[in-house]
Amino acid sequence: MSTDTRPNLLYIHSDQHNPYVTGCYGDSLVETPHLDALAARGVVLDNTYCPSPICVPSRMSMLSGRYPSDNEVWTNSHMLDSAIPTFAHAMGAGGYRPALIGRMHSVGPDQLHGYAERLVGDHGPNQMGGSGNSRGEYGGTAGPARVSLRLSGHGQSAYQVHDEDVTASTVDYFNRLGVQKRAGQPAEPFSLSVGFMLPHQPFIARLEDYRHYYENMTPPKNPEPFGDHLHPHIKLWRQACEIEEVSEDEIRRSRAAYWALVYRMDVMIGQIMTALRENGLEENTLVVYMSDHGEQLGEHGLWWKQTFYEDSAKVPAILAWPGHLPEGTHCDKVTSSLDLNATMIDALGCPALPHSRGRSLLPLLNEPDHTEWDNVAFSEFCQDAAGAGGPFPEEGIFQRMVRRDNFKLNYYHGQPCQLFDLDVDPRELNDLAADPAHQQTVAKLKAEVLEGWDPESIRERMAALRADRPILADWCKNVQPPDTIRWDLRTGMDYLDEEQI
After folding, report:
1. Residue 195 and residue 191: Cα distance in Å, rounded?
2. Is 4 helix (H, G, I), strand (E, B) or coil?
3. Selecting from 3.40.720.10, 2.60.40.200, 3.60.130.10, 3.40.50.720, what CATH number does the domain 8-371 have?
């Protein structure tokens, strides 16, 4: 029997999970018993922010420990340079053989970025310019488009099918480790990342999960009517996505499906945790749950992500490690997803990433009263002027947020800032940016946002990257290199039941 006592890591990363749709974050409607159980034996982070409220930039930042402007990955079309070491590289350098099952959402030929093996891939093409999947009449339901609200209800989302495959593969992974352990064979400690697609839209869930939430669904707490009072970028975003007005029926169906998808994801997490426990692997394993960004669900009249409002930019983060972290506690310090990267590397005794912006949370979580902590987090959202997802002008599409202590400042290059005091205004209903009494705070936070972050340089660099893309895409179309890691999403996996309740 192996005497290797190094800890294991199970890192579960979901897609588009609003933390407020979780029992341990205070939602009394959603049923998330397995995430709640994880929280009961660990620590819940109450104020963790994603590095970018959109998929690829957030995930590549989470891998590298660097912000999008460090990685030059600002949109879902940008590639992470394979020369940038990642969390997985650190694990490998520290003696682990890191494995990934499921979602990563990287662009380009490198579909591992330091992982030694990947058992289930993404549904999109590996290469820029590769052939995507046809979703038939459900095309566009995964993007920021009104069709995702119109085609909502009960049926089946292909993303749930993907996650069922991820869950089965993960359970099998632990069962095989259990067999090896029971056979008395030496077993190396594991570092396993599990990537879910849920609860990302399409807003479609199976009837068995959907019915309860449809019957009990509540409306958004802070619906915002469309009008000239909106911030200019938010107003234009709602126009571009055709969500100036959304019907009560669409709101109820979409929210019910989302709650049902969160519930179903929790069921799958429960299956994974059961396999971990039944194979005798739980006690020496650090379990981390986090998402890449949130989901707005009609709050502020907005859907999907792509803004710095709390429902979009804040993420759930739960850590449990028996004997090493306190149990049943909450941490209200301001943290970044990048801090989770640094924490996992630190916990497993692996070499720190040299240029990481993350900070290990272990001292803070174990000795909160004796650990100094800089209460700050940043997030970026920069759109490509030639492909921003709507008819956007140059103004306002280079954005950065800073949360420092109780204040949050949202910077829009060429447009007014927003400022919120989250202690007195947690739902962000009162923009203080123009208030004379808060000009000193605006100036201080704006200077912090712009320190080391130059929107004009980002504009120029994006243009250069954009000029490279046609050659890469044409190369892929003509050469047709094989997709080495890809999940087979097929037309017909997405559907709505013919009769809706």
Report:
1. 13
2. coil
3. 3.40.720.10
**β-sheet bridge partners, residue 99:** 117, 192
Rg of the chain's alpha carbons, rounded to an integer? 22
Tell me which residue of 368, 406, 400 sits closest to 383, measured CA to CA.
Answer: 400
Cβ(234)–Cβ(381) below 8 Å: no
3 state SS of 131: coil
Are 50 and 315 contacting, i.e. CB atoms less than 8 angstroms apart? yes
Residue 71: how many other CB atoms lie within 10 Å: 22
Q: What is the number of other CB atoms lying within 10 angstroms of the CB of residue 447?
A: 10
Beta strand ranges found along 321-438 (DSSP E): 329-336, 376-382, 398-404, 407-412, 418-421
Q: Which residues, 6 or more positions from 206, have their beta carbon under 8 angstroms from its beta carbon?
A: 154, 155, 156, 160, 260, 264
The residues, ordered by sequence, that sit 6+ positions from 275 with a Cβ below 8 Å of its Cβ are 170, 171, 174, 175, 178
**Which pLDDT does position 388 carry in this prediction?**
43
What token pair was written down for 8? 């294991």
Q: Using CB atoms within 10 A of its CB, is residue 303 exposed (0-12), middle (13-18) or buried (19+)? A: buried
Residue 270 reports pLDDT greater than 50: yes
CA distances (Å), 194 to each of 53, 102, 156, 165, 261, in order?
A: 20, 6, 22, 11, 17
pLDDT > 50? residue 389: no
DSSP letter at 481 equals -
Q: Determine the 3-state secondary structure of 13 from DSSP.
A: strand
In this predicted structure, the answer to whether residue 356 has a pLDDT above a threshold of 70 is yes
- The answer to whether residue 474 scores a pLDDT higher than 50 is yes
The one-character DSSP state at 412 is: E
Domain boundaries defined on the chain: 8-371
Which residues does 137 contact at the CB level (< 8 Å), separation at least 6? 151
